[in-house]
Amino acid sequence: MQIDQDLLLLNDLQAQHVAELFSMLGDASRVKIIAALLNGPMNVQALANAVGISPSGISHHMRSLRQMHLVRAKKQGRLVFYSLDDEHVEELFQRGVDHVMHG
Predict the structure, then answer these.
(1) For residue 17, what are the contacts with CB-CB under 8 A and spacing of at least 6?
(2) Which pLDDT value is given to residue 7?
(3) I need a labelling partner for 102 at 20 to 30 A (CA). Which of 1, 50, 56, 91 fits?
(4) What are the CA-CA distances from residue 44 to residues 33, 34, 39, 79, 103 (Å)?
């Protein structure tokens, strides 16, 4: 794998943002939420059922995941549906799963 040399020269703010991103992925519940969203958009109740935590717990995690631009929200009527923010989130998640399964 070729590493972009510019990536090796992170400034302090960029390094902090990358650390915050990985910190978000350092929680098993958030990892399970992202895994569930690989199947497509879901509302809070569907995520709670899929992940096995309370709807209020899901809502708490979704706030953090939205702030880090890992998920996005779309309101449909009275329900809010969450999805992965973009293909980079899926790629990052898949790389992590591949790394864990490799060992």
Answers:
(1) none
(2) 58
(3) 50
(4) 10, 13, 14, 8, 33
